[in-house]
UniProtKB/TrEMBL annotation:
Pfam families, alphabetized: MgtE
InterPro entries linked: SLC41_membr_dom, SLC41_membr_dom_sf, SLC41A1-3
TM segment ranges: 66-87, 145-174, 195-213, 219-238, 250-268, 280-297, 332-353, 359-378
Domain of life: Eukaryota
Name of the featured protein: SLC41A/MgtE integral membrane domain-containing protein
Record-linked Gene3D superfamilies: SLC41 divalent cation transporters, integral membrane domain (1.10.357.20)
GO molecular function: monoatomic cation transmembrane transporter activity
Bilayer topology: Multi-pass membrane protein
Signal peptide segment: none
Keyword match Ubl conjugation: no
Entry's family note: Belongs to the SLC41A transporter family.
Length: 432
């Protein structure tokens, strides 16, 4: 659903007028997914250790974590909006004389109007795709910056309130019916966060880029409300014994993750409006391997917490530990294949995805490669951080998920390029 929504949003006039939003989307999605996964990890630990059984402690824990989530989300959304707008300004517009581009990080393939059947390669670095800008495309300025900032802050705050409350309820239900939330909440938090954040971004972008954009009114109101909300929840968090430590730590991995996600946003901004099906596939090739890797991170981290000496540098893994790691990673790898196959079958039969059948095996090969990258990064980063005294439950998931998102986007571009080069009928989107 997230992929299909992104595919449709790429044609919305509001987002084409303010195309910095396409750079913002991966940054916000990654940031929100990380915050919710960290929230679920903390509350799952509290549930499994019995802290949620006491009514007073449960109330303080829930309120403190939701308050800290609002503070973290608004602060990171502010940074994301500034980074997004800066990247949008740094990427220079190119002449609007060509259409139907195929772009990768170093080469832009296009056919000039006078030679529709001839393809040329032109080196391009850090540039917008050579295409006609949609009618009404706004020039980036103060009004556009306020709109991007208002969209980022409003969507992050609303998504945090809705999904944070929902995850608290899920964990309480799991505790009540004796299920381990560690096995349920990370993928649920990641996928629902993507869908909810993307929905809010699309709706708010449409709302805040109405004619009122010209008079600053709606974006300024959104920013003012976000500032009041931030101040209120900082006050609440500092008075809560469970939230106070969260305000003072854990910012570094979120900032690193957002920096990495800016690269993902650049890739999405270039390609989501170029190739049919790119939006629907980009969410899956990054999201599903990321969820598989997050489960692996959680399992390794649990094992390290249970046996603190296991991950220390200089202590080799036993044969039994190595066998367990191999079985776990192999199982997670093969679990993803039927899920992906079911997804592809559904979207193809439903008509949501229009790609030639010859493209499917190329995409699946890229997906398998990204799952392998995800599992390797999960294993390496968890032990690397643990060996340096950093809790992987807090520091690993943000960096891991952002790297997997970026590698997934790049592999998807490579898949389209290989398919097109081999003669597959990969369709271009019509640019309004």
């Amino acid at each position: 659903m997230t992929g299909e929504l992104l595919e449709h949003m790429s044609t919305w006039r509001a987002l084409q007028q303010l195309d910095e939003v396409f750079i913002l989307i991966p940054m916000l999605n990654n940031m929100k997914g990380n915050l919710e996964m960290n929230l679920s990890a903390r509350l799952s630990t509290a549930a499994n250790t019995g802290h949620l059984d006491d009514v007073r402690t449960r109330r303080l824990l829930m309120l403190g974590n939701v308050s800290a989530l609002q503070v973290q989300a608004l602060a990171m959304a502010f940074i994301a909006a500034i980074g997004t707008f800066t990247l949008g300004k740094l990427i220079p517009p190119l002449p609007a004389d060509y259409s139907s581009p195929i772009v990768n990080s170093t080469v832009l393939l296009f056919h000039p109007p006078q030679e529709p059947r001839t393809w040329h390669a032109i080196p391009v670095a850090w540039s917008r795709a050579i295409t006609k800008l949609p009618a009404g495309k706004t020039k980036s300025g103060l009004r556009e910056f306020l709109a991007v900032l208002g969209i980022a802050l409003s969507s992050a705050s609303l998504a945090s309130f809705i999904l944070g409350s929902f995850m608290c309820g899920v964990i309480l239900v799991c505790r009540r019916i004796h299920l381990d939330p560690d096995n349920i909440t990370p993928p649920l938090a990641s996928s629902l966060s993507d869908l909810l954040t993307l929905t809010l971004v699309g709706l708010l972008a449409t709302f805040l880029t109405l004619p009122s954009l010209e008079i600053f009114r709606l974006p300024l109101v959104a920013i003012l409300l976000a500032a009041i909300t931030f101040s209120l929840f900082v006050f609440i968090s500092l008075r809560n014994e469970f939230a106070r430590p969260l305000i003072k730590s854990g910012w570094t991995p979120l900032i690193w993750a957002m920096t990495i996600s800016s690269g993902t946003g650049l890739v999405l901004d270039k390609f989501v409006t170029r190739w049919e099906g790119f939006g629907a596939l980009s969410v899956v090739i990054g999201g599903l391997p990321g969820s598989i890797g997050s489960v692996f991170v959680s399992r390794i981290s649990t094992r390290l917490h249970a046996n603190p000496l296991a991950g220390q540098e200089g202590r080799p893994w036993t044969d039994n530990e190595k066998a367990n790691m191999w079985v776990t990673s192999s199982s997670l790898f093969f679990v993803g294949l039927p899920v992906l196959s079911s997804y592809l079958a559904f979207v193809l039969l439903a008509g949501w995805l229009k790609v030639p059948l010859s493209f499917v095996p190329i995409f699946m090969a890229g997906f398998c490669l990204n799952v392998t990258i995800s599992l390797y990064l999960a294993h390496f980063l968890t032990h690397f951080l643990w060996g340096r005294g950093l809790d992987p439950d807090i520091y690993c998931m943000p960096v891991h998920s952002s790297l997997v998102d970026l590698s997934g986007q790049c592999l998807l571009v490579l898949a389209y390029w290989i398919a097109s080069s081999s003669g597959a009928d990969v369709q271009y989107k019509a640019i309004p």
